[in-house]
Amino acid sequence: MKVKEVQDNLYSVITQQRKFEQPLPNIQQPPAHNTAYRFWHCERCQSYMCKPTQHCTFCRKCFHFKDHHCFFLGACVLRQNMGNFILFCFYTSLTCLYSLCVLGPYMYENINHIVKSDADYFNIFLNFCFPIALARLLHSKDSSSILLVTIFDMLMSILCICLVLGIWKLHSCLTGKQHYVNVTGKQNLKEIFGNYGLSNIIFPYNGLIGTRDINGKYELKEV
């Protein structure tokens, strides 16, 4: 039994080493004598993994170049889907902004009788702060206004969180804090978003269903 486990572990090491020894396209590789490969044994997966690899307790498997586990997506954000995660944050922000524009006139009609005509901007702002707005609206016993203010605050919170997180991840990828390969800024954009770069925000074809290979090989992703 132990001999079988040793053979499986050796096969896993050889497979991982061959996988990461394959050169990346259009990227200058360092000399062979300076290349060092490090492996570690994951006790939960019972196999050897090439660093940098982290084990996700929620997905119950190891991932290479893992960033974090997203509970809203129900999956880990990796190098392969970082561009999709940034686009997801931007699209969510735009959706919340559109919903706020649609919700604005209805909120104005429903809480106009609560806000005094001579109120300053600070008092008007307090009517949109959830704890204060909830107390005032409960006192006025207006259930429709309570629902509108709750939806407004939720949309504003999601808008701010997704927009800040998306811009922060994009800035980290472009400034070098989260570079996965030693390439220029333009090449790194292709590595994250695909061949179209930032234009994938408008037309996310290459970034969503195709690989982000900078040579333009449109192959379906392995799920």
From TrEMBL:
Residues spanning the membrane: 85-108, 120-139, 146-168
Keyword Secreted: no
Domain Palmitoyltransferase DHHC: 41-176
Subcellular location: Membrane
Main enzyme class: transferase
Gene Ontology terms, MF aspect: protein-cysteine S-palmitoyltransferase activity
Main subcellular localisation: membrane
Gene Ontology cellular-component terms listed: endoplasmic reticulum; Golgi apparatus; membrane
Record InterPro entries: Palmitoyltrfase_DHHC, PFA4/ZDH16/20/ERF2-like
GO BP terms, alphabetized: protein targeting to membrane
Catalytic activity line of the entry: L-cysteinyl-[protein] + hexadecanoyl-CoA = S-hexadecanoyl-L-cysteinyl-[protein] + CoA
Source organism superkingdom: Eukaryota
PROSITE patterns found in the cross-reference section: DHHC
UniProt-listed Enzyme Commission number(s): 2.3.1.225
Keywords noted in UniProt: Acyltransferase, Membrane, Transferase, Transmembrane, Transmembrane helix
One Pfam family hit: DHHC
Mode of membrane association: Multi-pass membrane protein
Family the entry assigns: Belongs to the DHHC palmitoyltransferase family.
Comment field on protein domains: The DHHC domain is required for palmitoyltransferase activity.
The name this protein goes by in its record: Palmitoyltransferase
Organism listed in the record: Lasius niger
